[in-house]
Amino acid sequence: QVQLVESGGGLVQPGGSLRLSCVAEGRSIDIYTMGWYRQAPGKERELAATIASSGSTKYADSVKGRFTISRDNAKNTVYLQMNSLKPEDTGVYYCNGRYLPINYWGKGILVTVSS
Questions:
Q1: Which residues of the chain have pLDDT under 50?
Q2: Which residues are bridge partners to 67 per DSSP?
């Protein structure tokens, strides 16, 4: 069993930056594809970014060039560096770990982009 614990969210002004962290507890994540998903108020959860065990990354078009996902397997941690934040980036961000058919989710952390 793996528990994913997110941190680093909060309130930031438009144009600002935040770095989210997701620590995995209970098992090594080095074989997992890790990802960050987000859910804006009143909308469905959507993919923001993923990083495979190989280090290959994928991003939603809406965050390309602004967000960077990375992983440190030695620390069992995944990061999401978010720059040039926009009000539409507001939402709950969820960490995900996937090694099919296994799929783990964190509880989520709130990011609010507002002046």
A1: none
A2: 82
